[in-house]
Amino acid sequence: MPAHLITRRPGPNRRSSQGTGRLRAAALTTAFVAVLAPVLSACGGDSAASDGGSTLKWTSSYFPTHWDPVVGGSGAQFRELALTYASLTRTDESGKAVPDLAKSWEYNDKGDEITFHLRSGLKFSDGEPVDAAAVKAAIERAQKQKNSALFGDLTSIKSVDANGLDAVLHLSQVDYQIPQLLGQRVLQVASPKAAKNPEKLDQNPVGAGPFVVTQVIPGTKALLKKNPDYWDAKNIHIDNVELTSAPDASTVVSGLQTGVYNFADLDPSQASAAKKAGLDVFVQPGFNASNISLNVNKAPFDNDKVVDAVRHAVNRKEFVDKLTFGYGEVTDQPFPKGYVAYDPKSEDAYPYDPAKSRKLLADAGYEPGDIKLNLVIPAEDPQAEIVQSQLAKVGIKVTIKIDKNWATPFFAKDLTLSLYGTTGRDSAAQTLTAHFGPNGPLNLSTPYEPDGFEAAIAKVRQTPLDSPDYTQVLQGATRAGLKSKALVFTYSQPNLIAKSKSISDLPKNPAHIDWTGVTINGGN
Amino acid sequence: MVRRVLTLTSGRIALVILTVIALLAVLGPLLAPQNPLATSDNTLAAASGSHWLGTDYLGRDVFSRLLDGSRVSVLGSLEVALMALVVGAIPGILSVYLGRTFEWITLRLADTLVALPFLLFAVAVIALLGNGITQAMLVTGALVSPLFYRVSRAATLAVARSPYVEAALVSGASVGWVVRRHVWVKVLPPIAVALAQTIGVGFIIVSSLTFLGIGIQPPAPTWGGLLASDLGYLSYQPWAPLAPALLIMITVWASNLLADAIRDVSGEAGRAFVNNRKARANRLDGPEPVSTGGV
């Protein structure tokens, strides 16, 4: 908005007939443009690119702010980075690690050393070879680079030996989670030559994934083309990708209808409109779990009864009904039901019971209104309003504070009450330690950890993934973690996607967007 | 001046609307039929007897939220206008009398402030000082103040060089007396026009900031905030944005209408304009003129 105001001089208003004519002409022109614009935009196709190949036009809520995977971390934008970066492993539809750049791997007998055997003849988009030296460089960069968001995930890796196409990882402890860990979320491998200049890599990604980035407009748009040197290029049937940062949620459906996009992350509030528009609306399975983070090192949460009162004050169904329009699920764990780490024995351990919550507060010596808390969040979020309303019903007064610099006090564990939502990790052990470990980034109560959790998670690491008791051991660790007083899980936000019917169905890999085998009609 | 504004239909309409809006700001929270913050399971409900404008995505009564949210919009726009008035008009008048150095500094300052986009600046200030509408509005008021500075300076210059003011100064009148006795009377009408116009601009700024979720801590309702949240649920309630949008539009329109009316009736030309209207009205009310002959 310009900073100019039109000064009106005292005196009668006299509008000349010439001025009126100009005004009418301007109004007519505006009306003409308003009518013409939608007509022209509707003429756009929805699948074929100008060069005749098939084009994926994906508008994403997680457009990468960093294109260096080491800086980007293991958050939700890994799905977009996976367009251009490949990893040692990936996960299948059950969430189990399967080959990607590594065609196979094996542990030593003790379980403290793992060797990944890379596919031969692969190269990065800058022509550098994909070999064990590149893997070693990627791991060491993730461990040592100053602005790495991944170093906390790689503490089990002591050193790496590069022998041609064999990368030997020496571990600091027995850890059978490594193949799960080194998937797309934690070790997308960049060209070591390009990574020598991390600042440049951050804007000009160079990987060995299914697509090659040809142009990046930071924060706005990225253009990619199919990588003919990708190891599974024969199963990639998309020629071009136009990745854009998602506009306002209310305009996404019209963008899909007019062919501006043919694939979009969708806010649940828009699902109904998308279905009415004849689009394919589907939920990609995922590990999303939102929580209320409590700091048990600070009053009043240093009182167990207050923590229990909050646990019983939370009506999870309200989150699902009001925020996900029925597409989400209630959850009291950081895993979806049916996933190997989901512990059925811990289900609904603290059911919604406001009367019990009020009694617990009274037992703790608090009258209604005695407890006043600031709920600090980074941006406006209806979740916070629901939490505020639910806690008000049991007599806890919550004031919502928006702090644009929220991340600093949150990760410094300075806040008393906050909200967080994870998109999960491919390694269940990593998810558990991130939430419940004494230094877990999502544990607002550091250095607190629930009793027995450390031993339980160590046992998970020591249990091979194909061991018959792996499931039991993993669920035991989940149970131990859920004793944490620092987290109250609420609901699972769905990975809701709308796409043009011209795009074929995607593989149902949890939280991943896998383009293998996906076709776009009219383009191929 | 109020009486003269009331002689115009546009002035009467503007004052009625702005009075209603002002009353909403004072009494709105008391008039709200339901608790504007109370959520319910009845989400995105259509208008009904119990919810005149339906409910929002958390089941809150939209009508009550509109009434409750009027105070923030009105106070915010008044803060902008009053801040701009104080920061702009006084230096504008004084720049004529306090010497060339003061004049030069204030002119350059006004030029600088005009160059700053006030909405972006308000966002930056909120980021710097914390989330609150008052600090943003006060800073925005300072950025809008060059309007008042230029208007008051121009009017003061016109008066300061008139023979009767020079005569008063030669006769020993103090600058303060001259400003109070002669200048202020001439400066007031254009300032009143600018003030009404700035109140309208203030509404737009408050609504824009709250539309972006800036300046207000949720769940406090605001007109801009309601408009923003309604846009996310158009497929369920396509009519929902109408109420907050119309309120914002009508209020801004009324402010501009008032500015026009003040401009039309102020000054010598305005006085003549009103007198001509009155004379014309009297002629129309009187007997038909009788023909004095001729072909």
Automatic annotation (TrEMBL), chain B:
GO terms for biological process: transmembrane transport. GO terms for cellular component: plasma membrane. It holds the Pfam family BPD_transp_1. It is a multi-pass membrane protein. InterPro entries: BP-dependent_transpt_permease, MetI-like, MetI-like_sf, OppC_N. Keywords: Cell membrane, Membrane, Transmembrane, Transmembrane helix, Transport. Residues 74-259 form the ABC transmembrane type-1 domain. The keyword Cell membrane applies. Its main location: membrane. PROSITE patterns: ABC_TM1. The chain crosses the membrane at residues 12-32, 80-100, 112-138, 158-179, 191-216, 236-259. CDD domains: TM_PBP2. The keyword ATP-binding does not apply. It is found in: Cell membrane. Belongs to the binding-protein-dependent transport system permease family. This is Peptide ABC transporter permease. The lineage of its organism: Bacteria, Bacillati, Actinomycetota, Actinomycetes, Kitasatosporales.
